[in-house]
Design brief:
two-stranded antiparallel ribbon; 46% helix; Creatine Kinase, Chain A, domain 2
Length: 355
């Protein structure tokens, strides 16, 4: 499999809609930050140091059992548009997409695993699964981590744990996160209160693409803030527990909306579906908002002919870079809006016709 195969495939494993609690949790991610002993962190490293890291990672992939299926991509040799698509598919960070020399990403063909090389740390090992599957994501990331550790010497301190470029990652080096869709809480004006409450118990709240990004389409990323002094299992269990409370609140408010404001909710949902089905111009921001409304209708049982997997796919392929890749050329803002609307209409039509 090549980079082109990964980019051209519009559906990723995390987009599945039959996973646990997928009506609220779009995906679960566990990321492990690791560094190689004796080599400066990327922001202090020389080009020779970064090249050494890249060489060690590629050697490990070639020789360690279980890593051979990873597709290695040199970001400095990858077009900017393709790098942005990897961001839109949640396989690399916006910072990593800048494509500096000796930056790599290694991706498993099903996209459940990606390893960023020479981002903030030498390695950032990510496992990404659909729905609420934090324990499984931790298990998968740990398996990949063990394979790399069998081939290289990590920077590790007996008292502190794994040594990382950012002090907040020292310890386990683990960041667990869930991407949650909270349209019912947003519709009733309660989402701010709920997210403020989780911030008070050590959970960070970010936007669709993580740190520094905005929340759009009522999608939020929740992740642990502390890595030192707790085990990996404790960090994952804490985030899972908080996420389950949010799931219960979103479902409860959704049921209340159906029970007490069904006419208004059906109007909101069907107006959104009508716009997606017939609009001739659509910005990416508007598309995410309308897809959020339609997804609320699907999960509330008001739109039985629409499936959540198609909506998850549209969240990604209607983003600017992916849209231009599909069209095979660079597009100006107006033309993107025209093409985005046409793509959404076609996807909805195809779903209706069973294609």
């Amino acid at each position: 499999m090549s980079l082109g195969d990964i980019i051209d495939r519009t559906s990723s494993a995390w987009m599945r809609a039959d996973a646990p609690s997928a009506d609220v949790v779009l995906s679960s991610r566990v990321r492990l930050a690791r560094n190689i002993a004796g080599i400066p962190f990327p922001h202090q490293a020389s080009e020779a140091d970064l090249a050494k890291v890249a060489d060690q990672v590629q050697r490990a992939i070639r020789t360690a059992k279980g890593l051979a299926d990873l597709v290695v991509i040199r970001l400095s040799e990858t077009p900017a548009l393709d790098r942005q698509i990897l961001v839109e598919k949640h396989l690399i960070s916006p910072q990593h997409a800048q494509g500096a020399k000796h930056r790599l990403v290694a991706i498993r063909p099903d996209e459940t695993v990606s390893v960023m090389v020479n981002e903030e740390d030498h390695l950032r090992i990510q496992a990404l699964l659909p729905g609420l599957q934090l324990e499984d994501a931790l298990k998968l990331a740990s398996q990949v981590d063990d394979m790399f550790e069998s081939r290289m010497d990590y920077a590790f301190d007996e008292k502190l744990g794994y040594i990382t470029a950012c002090p907040t990652n020292v310890g386990t080096g683990l960041r667990a996160s869930v991407m949650v869709h909270l349209p019912a809480l947003a519709t009733t004006g309660q989402v701010g209160r709920v997210l403020a409450a989780v911030s008070n118990v050590g959970i960070a709240v970010r936007g669709l693409y993580g740190e520094g990004s905005e929340a759009t389409g009522n999608v939020f990323q929740l992740s642990n803030q502390v890595t030192l002094g707790r085990s990996e299992g404790e960090l994952v269990d804490n985030l899972a527990g908080v996420t389950k409370q949010i799931i219960d609140q979103e479902r409860s408010v959704r049921e209340k909306l159906v029970r007490e404001r069904k006419d208004q909710l059906e109007d909101k949902v069907n107006r959104a579906y009508g716009l997606l089905s017939h609009a001739r111009l659509m910005t990416s921001q508007e598309a995410l908002g309308l897809l959020s409304d339609v997804r609320l209708g699907v999960e509330a049982g008001l739109l039985p002919g629409v499936d959540a997997k198609t909506l998850n796919e549209l969240m990604v392929i209607t983003q600017p870079a992916y849209l231009q890749r599909i069209m095979g050329k660079e597009l100006g803002p107006h033309e993107r809006d025209v093409r985005r609307a046409a793509l959404i209409r076609e996807k909805i039509r195809a779903r209706k016709e069973g294609r």
